[in-house]
Design goal:
There is one protein chain. With 105 residues, the protein is mostly helical. The chain has one domain. The chain is built from four helices and no strands. Helix 1 (9-21) crosses helix 2 (30-55) and helix 1 crosses helix 3 (62-86).
């Protein structure tokens, strides 16, 4: 992992956001909380700069954006995981196969 150009403050802000996000999730073990904090911190470290460039934010907002990415990264990951678990994969496969074979008809 590469240290951001403006030092460790964005990384620290991302870690603080990830740690704060744990207050909104109940029933977790200390190990799960540790993994979530590390993952939120890494998400903030790796995704803040690309997100800021994508939306055209000024570089001076990097600490705040790192905090928000750390804070909301698990909400996004949790939503994706929930969607994948609830998906009707067999229905999707059947639909894709039907579309492939009905294309020539």
């Amino acid at each position: 992992m590469q240290i951001p150009e403006d030092g460790l403050w964005p990384l620290i802000a991302g870690a603080a956001g990830a740690a704060l996000s744990l207050q909104f999730i109940e029933g977790m073990t200390w190990k799960q909380k540790g993994v979530m904090t590390i993952t939120g911190t890494l998400s903030a470290a790796l995704l803040t700069t690309p997100l800021m460039e994508w939306v055209g934010m000024p570089a001076s907002w990097s600490n705040g954006m790192s905090f928000l990415v750390g804070l909301f990264s698990w909400a996004a990951v949790g939503g994706v995981m929930h969607t994948l678990q609830k998906a009707d994969w067999w229905g999707l496969i059947q639909d894709v196969v039907r579309r492939i074979f009905n294309r020539g008809s």
